Structure prediction request, 483 residues.
Amino acid sequence: MQLKAENVSFQYGENMPWILKDINFAVESGERVGIIGPSGYGKSTLSKIMAGYYKPTSGKITLDGESLPQKGFCPVQMIFQHPELSVNPRWKMEKILNECWKVDEDTKHAFGIEKDWMGRWPNELSGGELQRFCIARVLSPETKFLICDEITTMLDVITQAQIWKVLLEVSDKSNLGMLVVTHNMALAEKVCTRMIDITKWNK
Amino acid sequence: MLRRSNGKGWNGRSRVFILLIVATVYLVGIFVWGITMNPVKYGVNYSEKLVSPCIKHLFGTDFMGRDMFYRSIKGLSNSIRIGLIASVISSIVALILGIVAAIWGGWIDKVINWCVDLCMGLPHLVLLILISFMMGKGVRGITVAVALTHWPSLTRIVRAEVMQVRNSQYVQAAYKMGKTKVQVAVTHILPHVLPAYLIGLVLLFPHAIMHESAVTFLGFGLPAEMPAIGVILAESMNYIVTGKWWLAFFPGILLLMAVLLFDGIGESLKKLWNPGSGNE
Prediction:
């Protein structure tokens, strides 16, 4: 499968500056494309557009030639930078984990999700623990592409390594396409098969 | 976050549970006692007019020799019933309209806002009297009237609460996980609105009782022979200047306790459901 951005431009309001201008690129299944660049160059905006959270001002996002589905499960799933914002603070972890699909025991084990975390509320877990839930819940068999927006930036190095190791295994096994947004050059070189420097697009 | 138990006494969760149970038992007790009470207990007895509180008549008697203790219990029971039915209906209408307006937006939001403005623009009491009169007064008239006039302000509060969470990341993510608007409204939005809703419900309850008594006072509500806290308080005003303090004091205290306990129930539920305090 191919997730493709065709002539995508974006601005937040009518008289606001262009964040992205005429961007063309594609991610294939099994590929891990890294997007690197300094703050304020529209990396997060681009990932939200690719995942269908924002509509591009002009141009379009296609999945195998068709535009992203507006209703029902979206095969392109996004993982956010702040896990504490992407879970409902009034839900217990078990409900959060199984919101998207019934997460199997293997996945839980691989991410080191412990049984006694299930009865807790999100404010009783750390950011790293929460992020594991956020990643595991979108790895359903129907997910074809993953957009990772700085998903391990707030974690310590050991946890980062653990999470990425599992994520790479899963993505190889189910042939996921990934878009990895990061500041961290070393991480990008380690996990990505191809890299795009966003500063080359936007001057 | 997880406060350690000090070893003595109960932890926060059990204390809250006990408060909840005591409050519920008190209110349900008065309610049931009032419904099943024999009318003879608060019957007219001209040989004992305006007796001050004593062992035989705990709350004294009124100008027709009716025992104020039983009359107050019966009255409170009636008031709780009317207040409860009216405020539950009213608040459910508010909850549904508020969530629908905020999630669907567009013309639905506009229409609901017009209705809210319309109802808030009309004087409450006029609307109450009109509806009560149209429904043939009595318990039914007053309940319908109070239920139909108390939803607008709570609708606004609920709508504002929903506005806050509807654009949050987890709600957006839920849509992408294939959840429909109804599913998101019920599973994500509702738990957030519940605390505001409960407070709204608790605040509506005394409001409903007050309006019930006001309309009754004007002669468009309950019949005069039916004891209700509103009727009792209105009557007692005629006697309070002559030093018959017990006519207003005890029923007033009973009403106050009922309202405070309602408030206690609301607060306890809020504590148990809130992630910040639910596991303490």
